[in-house]
Structures
1.
Amino acid sequence: MKAILDHVGIAVQDVAKALEFYRDALGLDIEAPEEVWSQRVRAHFIPVGQSSIELLEATASDSAIAKYIDKRGPGIHHITLRVPDIGAALAQLKARGVRLVDEKSRPGAEGALVAFIHPSAAHGVLVELKQPARRLIEQPVTQMKWGNLRLTTVSDGSFRLDGGAMFGIVPRPLWERKAPPDDRGRIVLAMRALVIEADWGRMIIDCGAGNKLDEKWTDIYDIDRTRSLDHTLAEAGLSAGSIDLVLPSHLHFDHVGGAVVNEAAGHVPRFPRARYVIRRGEWDDAIRPNERSRGSYFQEDVAPLEAAGVVDLFDDDREIRPGVRVVRTGGHTANHQIVFIESEGKTAVFAADVVPTQAHLPDLWITAFDSFPMDSLAFKKRFLREAIDREYLIFFDHDPSISAGYIREKDGKRSVQKVI
C-alpha cells in the first residue's frame, strides 16, 4: 500500500476563532468550505505544502464531530492517508486482521472515496483512507419532477483532459487538490446529458462523445464508455428512438459526438426521429473550424446530421420549447450557450462549460480551451451571482462526483450543496 499524508482533521467548536488563528495569525489561505451533507459537517481545507489541515465544523448537534467535541473537546480528530486504490487498501488491511470502522468506502469531501480505520488498530488515532476523485464516481440515473417537467440525468461515461488546460492560469498546486491528475497530467471528467420530458415530447441536452473515436484518440482522452449513453438511457426506461429533440450546448466532440453513431452503413444520426436544434453561429464555426478550434470540432460529428437533413438552425436567444430557453454565453466558443429549464417558479440551468465542475466556482478558474476568456469571465461573474441569489439548481456536465446542486456562498467563498 502506497500512502502519503493528505491532511490532518481538526474538530473545531468556534470556527470563526479557528479561522482567525490559521488565516489571520498564521497567514494561511483558506479554501472555500465544503458541506458534507451525509456527515452533517462543514469542511474548511487549508493547504500546507503537499498536505492540508482540515477544520471540521459540525452542522448538526447529532453529527459525529459534535459528539466528539462534547466528549473530548476541540482538537485533532483524525489523520488522513491518501491511497491510489482504496478498495485494494481495505482488502489488504482486512487480510491482516486490522479492525475497520468502514469495510467499504463511501463518498467524502472533494468528491473522494473515504474509509476509516478504528483507533484501537492505530494506537489511539482515528485514521482515514482517502482515494481522490481520479475516477468517475458513477452516479445513478436520477429522475426528478421539476414543476410540470421531468428531468433525467444520463451519462456517456468519462474522459480525461490535461489538468493545466482545464484550469487555465490557475497554478497546479491550487487545482490539483480539487482535481487530482493521473501520471499523464490528465484529470477525469464526466460526460453528462440531461433529458427533459414534457407534454410536448422529449429533449436531450448534449450527448457525450459517442463511439466514433479511433484507438489513438480514445487513448489520448482515456475515454471510458463502460456505462454509455445507451446504457443510462435504458436504465431510465428510455432509448435513442424515444428522443424528439437534441439541443447541444455547443458542438465540441465531448458534447455532440454522441449525436452521430458509427454503424456498418457508416455514420448516421443516433436519434432516428429527432430534430437537432442548433445555434447557427455555432454550426457555422463547427463546419468551418479554424486552426485553433479544429482539435475540438470534428466533422464526423456534424456532417452526417447535415446529410440527413435533420438540423434546425436558429439565430438568437429564445424559448426552444415551453419551459426551455437558451442563453448565449460566448467565451468557451463564440456561440456557446447554457440552457434554462423553468417551471412553476423553479429554475434549473444546464451550465455546460461555463461551470464545467464544482472546482470551477471561482470567477477566474476558466479553462485554457476557452477561445474568448474575457467574455467567459464577464458572463460567468454575472451568471454565478444570479445563480446564487436566485437559487438556481445547476447541472454540471463534467464534474466527476456531482450531477447537480445549489451554489452557496459564505464569507465570499463558494461551495456546492449536492442534490444528485
2.
Amino acid sequence: MTVLVAVLLCASGCARLKLSRRLMPTPAGIAVGLPHPGGEFHEACQCADDEIPIFIVSGRNLESKKRSPDPFGNKRSPQPTLGIAYVNIGKGLTPEQLHQQTVTSKKRKRARVAFKRIELSPALENTQPWRVKDDVIRHNENPWVQAVSQRLAQSSQRNVTIFVHGYNTDLIDNTLIAAEIYHYLGHQGAMISFEWPSESKLLGYVADKGNADYSTRHFRSMIANLAKECDVDSITIIAHSAGSPIVVNALREIRLLEHDLSADQVQQKYRVDRVVLAAPDMDLMAFINAVHDRFHEVAGRVAVYASPKDRALGLSEKLYGNFRLGRAVDKLEPWEQRVLEQVPEIEMVDASVAVQEYHNLIGHSYFHRDPWVSSDIGGFILGRTPAGRNLVKQEGEVFWKFPKDYLERLQQRKSSTEKH
C-alpha cells in the first residue's frame, strides 16, 4: 500500500498551492542548437518582467467564497467558464540571462515560472450554438474571443496551442505547465489550457475518469468554434494522461458528424494540424476503435508517446484489467498492429529509452520533464518525420524508438547543418 500511494502521489505531478517552480528542463535539441518551434527565443526572452497570458477554458465549477488564486472547485459545470491566467517567466533576470536559462542543458535553473492571477471573462451568451456543422459566427464580440484574436494578430503565427491536463491536477499547476510549453514555442500564437474538472485529490481517479468523459463535448465544441470565431490558421493539441481520451473521442465525434466531408475538407474546416498524446491513459482497444472511426483525419498528424516503464499506467491497467495506450509497447495484437500500419498519419513512439536515461521513477510526466521526449515533440510540431527526428524503427515494428546514442545523433545533425 505504501508503494501504491507513492506511485499515485508522484504520478499526479502536482504541488498543491505552489504558485511557482523552476523552468522545465530544456529540450535536448534546443540545448545542442537545433531549430525548434520557439526559434532563437531572443524575442520571447525580452519579457522576463512581463505577464504572459494563458487562455483558460474551464469545465470546473466556480466557488465564489474560495480564498485562493484559483477560483475553481473540483466539480462539473454545465457550461464552460472562460478566463485569462497571467504567468511570469524569469522575473528578476535580464533578457540575456533568461535566454541562457532557456537554452541551457543544466537541470537546476534560476528561472522560475510563477502564477500571478486569473481574470474571468463574461460567459458566452449562448454556448449551445458551439456545435459542429455550423458556420455562423456568434461570439466575435465576446472579450475572451477578442483577446485570443488580438494575441494571434500580434504574432507572426496564427496558431493556437491547446494543453489538456491529466489526473489529479488543479488550475495553477496546469497553467504553469501550459506556460512552459508556450515559452518553448517562443510565445508564438495563443496558448489555451483546457481545464476539465479533475477532483484534484489523490483518491479521485475514478471520478476524474468520469469527468474526462463528460468533458468530451466541451472540448469538441471548443475545437468546432476556434477556427471560425478567432480566424485561426492552425491548432496544435498536446494532451497528457487522462486528458488524452478527451481529445481522441472529441475528434472521433467530429469525424463521425462530418462524415460527408473528405479528410482534406475536415482538416481545412477545423484547422487541427498536430496532436500529441503523451502517456495516454486510454483503453488500447478503444483507441483502435477511434482509428477505425478515422478520428485522425481531423488532424494533419498524430503522435502517441508510450512507455512500458510508466508505473502510473501500470497501476491503471491493474484497476481496469486491460492494456492502456500509454503502455502499448510490445502489447499490440497482430490485428491491432495491422490497423496502425495502415495509418501513416499516426506515429507511435516508444519513450522508454528516454525515460530510462533520465531515471524517472514513475515514468509518467516525461512529455515535459524529459529533454529527449520534449525535443522530439518539438520536432514533430515542426513537421519533421520520425527518421528526421533521429528516431529508429526495425522492419515489421510499429513503434519508433529513441536510440541509445540519441544525443550524439542530435549533435551530429547540428554539425552537419552548420557545414551546409
3.
Amino acid sequence: MFWRRAETEARRVTPDESEWFLRVLCRGFELEASSARRFFYDDPYYEVNQRWGLWLHEGDQPVLVSILTAVPLTMRVGERFVEVSGIAGVATLPEYRRRGFAAELLRRVLRRLYVERAPLAVLQAFNHEFYRKLGWETVGATAQARLSPKQLPRYPAPPLRRATPQDRDAVIRLHAHYGVQRTGSLQRDSRRWNYLFWNLPNLWVYEAAGPLEGYLFYDFLESGWVLRVREMVWSSERARRAIWGWLASNEESVMQVEVSLPLDELASLRLLGWQSPPDEPSEPFYTVQVLPNFMARPVHAPTLLHSLLDGAPAPDAFAPFNLRVRDRAITARDAVIGVGAVGETLQVGEAIRRAPTMTLAPTALALLTYGTLSAPEMHARRLLHAPDALLPTLDALFPERRPCLTPIDYF
C-alpha cells in the first residue's frame, strides 16, 4: 500500500498571517511567546524581511508547518560588496518534523530567489550536512577562545562607561576608521546599525579626553556565566588596554570571556603574557577551537560573477574562460557564463567561443567565491576540474582569503 503525502503550498507570508508565522517560530525554537512577539515586531528589518511558509493541505484548513525568513543583507567578498539573502529562523512544527518540509520550503525559496536574480544565500547552520545536500557549503571558519577574567591582563586604566544614545555617531565613525573589514563582514548601512543598537544593548565605550577611542559590544551565554565579545574596536593603545582591563575586572560576575575571530586576528590580540602562567608545562595558556562558521550558496550565478568580477582590472597573463554551473535544485538548465576582457578590464557575459569551459557544482562555486581554498588547492583536491594553464588566472581572480562571520554580524 502506497502512502501519498498531502499537497503543499509554499509562498510568502502575508501581513495578516504574521501571528501564525510567530506561533510556528515560537514552537519550533521553544520560545516564550510574549517575549518573542516584541522582538519579532520591533525588529528593524521587520518591514523588509521576506517571511516564507509551507502550508500542508491535509484537512479542511491548511496548516502552516514550516517557516523561514530571508533577510536582505550586503556582504563583503574581497574588495566588493555583494547582495545576499540571509536565511534565518528555519523551523518546523515538532509534530511535522522529519517529513522533508523544511527542505521543500528551502528549495521553493531558492527558486524564487533565482527568479529575482539574487546572487547568494548565506546562513548560520544548525546542521551543516543537511544544508550541504541542498547546495550550501561551509565557506568560513572562526577561532574561538574562552578565558577566565583572571587570565586577562589587568591594565591600570580609566574604566569604560556605558554608552548613551549620544555616542551612536562616534561609535559608527570609530568602526568606519578602525573596524576590521574582512570577507564575510556585513555592510553597515543605517538599518544594520539600527539593528545592532536595538539588538545589543550592552555597549560600553572608552574616552580619555576628547572623542571616543574605543567601544565594546557584548552579550551573555549560558545563563549569564559567559560574556561573549561581539565586537571591540579601538583607535589607541590606551583604549585597547582599557577594554581588556574592563573585561578582566568582571571576575565576580562571569566565569569566562569568549572571543571569536579568524585565527590570525585572534593571535594579534596579545592575550599572552599575564602574571599567572600555568604551573605545569603541559597545561595550555588557553585553548582555541576552530569551528565551522557560515555557509553560502550561489543562487543566480551570472549575477554573482558579474558582481564579483565585471569591470575589475584583468590580471597579468589573463586567459578567458567559461563557467558552467550545474544546479539541478534550482533549474534544469545549466548557466554558462563567459569571463573575458575588453582591453585591460574584465567582462562577464555570454559564453566565449573556443575558451575552455569548467563545470562546477554550487558547493564548489561557493568555495571559489569566498576564497575558502585557493583554486590550485581545490584542483589538487579534485573539487575543481580545470586545465592546468587556467589555474594562474583563477588564482588571481579568486585569491585565498579567510572568510569569517564574527558574532557582531550574526543575523
